[in-house]
Amino acid sequence: MAEALKVPTMAEYMAEGKKPEVLFWVGCAGSFDDRAKKITKAFVKLLHNAGVDFAVLGTEESCTGDPAKRAGNEFLFQMQAATNIEVLNGYEIKKIVTACPHCFNTIKNEYPALGGNYEIVHHTQFLKSLLEEGRLKVEGGKFKGKRITFHDPCYLGRGNGEYEAPRDLLRKLEVELIEMKKCKSEGLCCGAGGGQMFKEPEPGNKDVNIERTEQALEVQPEVIAAGCPFCNTMMTDGVKSKNQEDDIAVMDVAELIASAEDL
Amino acid sequence: MQIISQILFLLALVAGIWFFTRNVKRLIRNIKLGKVIDRTDRSGERWAKMSRIALGQSKMVKRPIAGILHVIVYVGFIIINIEVLEIIIDGLLGTHRILSFMGGFYNFLIGSFEILALLVLIGVIIFWTRRNISNIYRFLSRELKGWPKNDANYILYFEMVLMLLFLVMNATDYQLQLNGAAHYSQEAGIVGAFPVSQFLLPIFDGMSNASLIIIERAAWWLHILGILIFLNYLYYSKHLHILLAFPNVYYSKLQPKGEMDNLEAVTNEVKLMMDPDADPFAGPAEEESDAEPEKFGASDVMDLNRVQLLNAYTCTECGRCTSECPANLTGKKLSPRKIMMDTRDRVEEIGEIINKNGKFEDDGKQLLDDYILREELWACTTCNACVEACPIGIDPLSIILDMRRYLVMEQSAAPNELGIAMTNIENNGAPWPYNQQDRLNWANEN
């Protein structure tokens, strides 16, 4: 990949007096985490490919406050929310897409009461709508017939009832979609939510991501598909601890589509 | 003799209902120790949800074996209780099977009760073996040791005995009708249908009518007294769900599970902080100066809301939440069921103090630390698996979150690494120590 990605910011759009079709909320993981940055880039390539007129907040974006809220720091959460809402409302943002279910949930459910009303979709929902509108073409490509299992992110699935968008995309890739014994509304958490990502687990006999990885390995997938940067990290670590990283890839749904299309 | 038995029956009935009413009043008083929460919106959706989940048992059958057995016991419980109506009228008036004038329909009813009673008996016996013999993960947890396990078994024994008494009562009654005993046999011929209890007849073979009457009366009395005792045992047991499941589902959260409430007190503070016109040196407003500042989060049950306390009383300790909890499954101390049991135990403890002293006096204990450990609270991933698993809409996660709020906002007692993540968010807008100005660097990296 020689050329840098073209990623316009809201500030640039504003300067030109334009408004994008959708704001891409990148999130902290998508901005800073090395693994998650790849997901961000894959998604940006898909946006370009589908001709979506989008922008990011860039340096004006800040943590939604999700980990703070769920760790009990409501004060910090609301400070973050107030700051972000001020920025978003300043740009008169109407529609947002994000590749992080935690940002998605927080902006969708917890920002409205604080004055932030936007239409927000998870990137799998957005990609699905692009597909339905015929703007994005997804065909089998190199994942056709591969055994792939989808790990439901808690804040997309149980938290907001979206189980099908990511699966519909995988079906479009003509993969052999296999379900773990615990999936959809009964899906087991990867172990990262509620602030756990940033701390050592309490004493127990196993880490949650190992338990979940074992459930995934039971169905012998070639790829574990994820829809959340934190799940991705947790499952990747789990697969590594089982010494399976050469045989089993952990990939975001957006990455699967982008790499199937050789973008 | 007849009149004495009628008077005794009336006394038993009045005592049973009086005691039950007293306990219901205590229950309501205890739930009202919690904070007011408005869950009266969207009543249409609430009724629909209650019909589907509480009345229709839709989430019970997600686990087919326990679910279908439960539906049988539930349907049996409700329908057989129609028979209790007749028992009460008979008891008060000294009549015998007063509803038998309904003829064929009456026979159909009694016949169905018998079949249901047999099914309930079988169901309850299977439940007992599941609790005591099969190694089912959720029945082996440490929070079930002692009283909770015994409590569950007592309830099962109660139900077994009640069903057996019902069948013995019917069998002896049938035999007495066949024998043409006075007061039992009726001109219309045999009243009632006895598809199950007819098989018990050989047991009573050759007994005199006098002996049969003693057995029939004993079974009749024990059955109705058993029901009155069971009704009053509810409050002391984990079994209140048979009544509270309905309001509990009605008042459960309708928003998406991922949504957690925004604390209004915090919103006000944040607004004040962000307001450029606010006077930074202003004291509290006149009328507020004496008011105690609002406490953030929960350290005891009075800090929880009434729906959370209703949740605690409704919990029947089935453990479906705990068996889905990622923390519990991986050996951590957290068990959502224990959160609910602890909450109830603590409300009850406070209720006892109020019973004794007329009001609550600080007993030096609280829900946090004395019941629920910090280690449990910090093990939660907020994944909502427990909320999803509960067949009657209990939300253990909301209690965990409120207690975390207390720990963080009142005590600054977050685990160290979490504290660091929060400081990072505060300083540079991300849980990791990266500069906010570097947030778009990814776009230029290869």
Automatic annotation (TrEMBL), chain A:
Q: Does the keyword Cell wall biogenesis/degradation apply?
A: no
Q: Which Pfam families match?
A: CCG
**Name this polypeptide is given:** Cysteine-rich domain-containing protein
Q: What is the lineage of its organism?
A: Bacteria, Pseudomonadati, Bacteroidota, Flavobacteriia, Flavobacteriales
Q: Is Transmembrane helix set as a keyword in this record?
A: no
Q: Which GO terms describe its cellular component?
A: plasma membrane
Q: Where is the signal peptide?
A: none
Which organism does this record belong to? Salegentibacter flavus
Query: Where does the record place the Cysteine-rich domain?
Result: 22-108, 148-235
TrEMBL record, chain B:
Q: Which domain of life is it from?
A: Bacteria
Locate the transmembrane regions by residue number.
6-24, 65-85, 105-129, 150-168, 188-206, 218-236
Q: Which InterPro entries match?
A: 4Fe4S_Fe-S-bd, 4Fe4S_Fe_S_CS, HdrC_iron-sulfur_subunit, Helical_ferredxn, NarG-like_sf
Residue ranges of domain 4Fe-4S ferredoxin-type in the record? 305-337, 369-400
Record-level Gene Ontology MF annotations: 4 iron, 4 sulfur cluster binding; metal ion binding; oxidoreductase activity
Q: Which UniProt keywords apply?
A: 4Fe-4S, Iron, Iron-sulfur, Membrane, Metal-binding, Oxidoreductase, Transmembrane, Transmembrane helix
Question: What PANTHER family does the entry give?
Answer: IRON-SULFUR-BINDING OXIDOREDUCTASE FADF-RELATED, IRON-SULFUR-BINDING OXIDOREDUCTASE FADF-RELATED-RELATED
Q: What protein am I looking at? A: 4Fe-4S ferredoxin-type domain-containing protein
Say which species the protein is native to. Salegentibacter flavus
